Amino acid sequence: MDLVDVTIVNIAIPSIQQDAGASFSQIQWITAGYALAFAAGLITGGRLGDIHGRKRLFLVGVAGFTLASALCGFAANPEMLVASRILQGGMAALMVPQVLSIVHATFPARERGKVFGLFGAIVGLGAVSGPLLGALLTQWNLFGLEWRPIFLINLPVGVVAFLLGGRFITESRAPRAMKLDLVGVALVTLGLLMLLYPLTRGRELGWPVWGYVSMAGAFAVFAALVAYERRKAARDGSPLVELSLFRVKSFAAGIAVQTVFGVALGVFFLVWTLYMQTGLGWSPLKAGLTGVPFSLAVSTAAGLSVQKLVPRFGRKVLQTGALLMAAGVLLYIGESHRYGLDITPWQMALPLVVMGAGMGLIVAPLTDAVLSEVPREHAGSASGLINTVQQMGNALGLGLVSVVFFGVIGDRLTPAQVGPAFVHAFQHALVWVAAVLGVIFLLMSALPKRPAQHVEGEGSGEEADTAAEAAAADGERGRERALVG
Q1: Is 144 left (phi over 0), alpha (psi -120 to 50) or beta?
Q2: Are residues 265 and 230 located together in one domain of the fold?
Q3: Where is the composition biased (Basic and acidic residues) (predicted)?
């Protein structure tokens, strides 16, 4: 439900903009607001489940997500839609972390492989079906509701999930749950808002002085977060961010890779959708079908990288993936420049397959590479932090769209100027994406040459098992997030 919802919204963005009269900054916040709320609440959502019961938090999250979906579907204006999306992201942060924890608590170790296999299949189904479902629902304009069915489809799914979950899920809690760090969550959220809000509204407001002050102040807030987390770790051992992890070189580099990778994905997927539907004037269905080769290439390369390539070539596979993605982006710029407004889906296929293959080489093994030198007893905290920074990077990338894409488009365009302006802005944004991928390639040089088994810590066998499951689960979750495109 979470994954399909994200992909559906991506494909329906231009329709929402036209029908609801949303501004460019509101369009950014419809996607970035969800990512920000989801990122800020992920670790807290997991800990709430450990403390108060995973089944209870799952059901609360499902109910809240379903209610937020209804509010999105019946939103009277863009402001209500943005607020509802932020609520939806917060509810997803309560719901999603419980899923794999419930699997671990419910099934014995010998059965979990089959369950995680089924989980991966559902992730793949969601990744492929989401864009197509969103395109069809938008194209069909059911009952004259335009884009609204993309949110309302969650209602029956949510009701069924709530009823079946209440009946069949067994309640579980962590034997030694950590305390909540609400101050840490507040500081992270405040810092990101101070950074993202001026980025998304700055162009529209003429880049006022307060925007620059706010962005500079965000770094002061992050510095305060680091100082507070150090004191909290010394006081009760339950900080939001386990700062000791950053002493592990490969983990620190991996967190940087995840964050910057999230920025690249946030920029690309939004501008890609706007380019195809607003710039080229394609229907949602045509745009959705154009992305199928990309998704298939990601899935195929992801399977090959984990099973065949990484065991033999190690981090070179990830670095090759970054170079392949950059090559695909540059190919896309060339094709877009060559064919202009007359470009066809089949002319986009080669760049998209190259990009997808590169992404597949990265997303599947990246989490294992980042976690390979982290002590077992910290694997759970580390995997949660990886998910969080990837979502934060995604939100930051969506905020940067205002600068690298909308900043290139004129404020007053005639209908004849819209297409060429969006094509030019798309090419400009892709130059930035290629540069970001180059930075990712350099950062990857600090990852281990070959991801090893997790370093043995002092935890018990059961704790080690739990940490290993968390790490494995995060690998699936990372693959899920990257397949959103």
Answers
A1: left
A2: no
A3: 474-485
